[in-house]
Automatic annotation (TrEMBL):
Region (Disordered): 78-100
Domain of life: Bacteria
Any single GO BP term: carbohydrate derivative metabolic process
Protein name: RpiR family transcriptional regulator
Molecular function via GO: carbohydrate derivative binding; DNA binding; DNA-binding transcription factor activity
């Protein structure tokens, strides 16, 4: 059971059993989990103000052989998108904020460079010309899928979001074919049935736009268009800033590929807004 838990969960589960010195080291680890992949036992001991023997004893209590195994564990967690960092005392300091900004800029630069080959325009054209668009996102991809659907429905009709709360996916895939498109968002820590979903879409001949991070590359060969979003972060959690930027570009491209119809639809929606008084009147 121990090996199914990450190091933070192991500390939480055994914290009351630790000696005061071990608790001191454990507190430091919990506040610096995002840096754990680069610290050895000596560095952890110095930074937390305990002996190296205390750190080694703590690791053994938590089920690790040594600091090398802890570093490997931390790297594996980060690569799978597990939130292994804590807020820490320095989360809002200028150095932390600058590091966050640098990481965000690098992610966006890598995204834009990957779109130089025309795949973004091709995906936008496919989406705007399809009969029906089904946008699918599960787990942490669901809010992104919801936002994408909300933007797409401004420029074209017949855009559905799946799965609906409490529902399965079969109902939304049945009836789709080569003239429709599925836009599938699949960022890491995906549901276990993700591969089966991609395979089902391919078997039915439904064009697929796949939006995900690099961990989904093994599914990219089955997509009509593959749009990779870097989500690396210096904080505990993955960053979806590039995904939101991509959604902006994708929908803007769809609007540009069908300008007259898009503007007509936007005007019609605006008229309904006014009839229903749904939006706040600007100053």
């Amino acid at each position: 059971m121990t090996h199914a838990l990450n190091i933070g969960q192991r500390i939480d589960g055994r914290y009351g059993e630790l000696s005061p010195q071990e608790q001191r080291a454990a507190d430091f680890i919990l506040d610096h989990l995002s840096d754990l992949a680069v610290y050895n036992a000596s560095e952890l001991a110095r930074l937390s103000g305990v002996s190296k023997a205390t750190v080694s004893r703590l690791f053994r209590r938590l089920g690790f052989q040594d600091s090398a195994e802890v570093r490997d564990h931390a790297r594996a967690l980060r690569s799978h998108g597990s939130p292994i960092g804590g807020p820490g005392a320095s989360a809002g300091t200028p150095s932390r904020l600058a590091a966050h900004a640098d990481a965000e800029h690098d992610n966006l630069r890598r995204l834009l460079e990957s779109l130089d080959d025309g795949r973004l325009d091709a995906a936008s054209r496919l989406i705007v010309t399809a009969g029906t668009v089904v946008v699918i996102g599960m787990r942490n991809s669901y809010p992104l899928a919801l936002h994408l659907r909300e933007q797409l429905v401004q420029v074209r009709d017949r855009v559905r979001l799946a799965p609906q709360p409490g529902q399965s996916l079969a109902e939304d895939l049945a009836g789709l074919g080569p003239h429709d498109v599925v836009v599938l968002l699949g960022f890491r820590r995906r549901a276990s049935g993700f591969g089966a979903l991609v395979a089902a879409i391919q078997r039915r001949g439904i064009p697929l736009v796949l939006i995900a991070d690099s961990s989904a590359r093994r599914h990219a060969d089955f997509a009509t268009h593959w749009l990779e979003c870097p989500i690396d972060s210096v904080s505990a959690f993955d960053s979806y800033a590039t995904a939101m930027s991509l959604i902006n570009l994708l929908v803007t491209g769809a609007m540009g590929a069908n300008v007259r119809e898009s503007r007509t639809r936007i005007a019609a929606i605006t008229s309904v807004y006014e009839d229903l008084e749904e939006l706040e009147v600007p100053w």
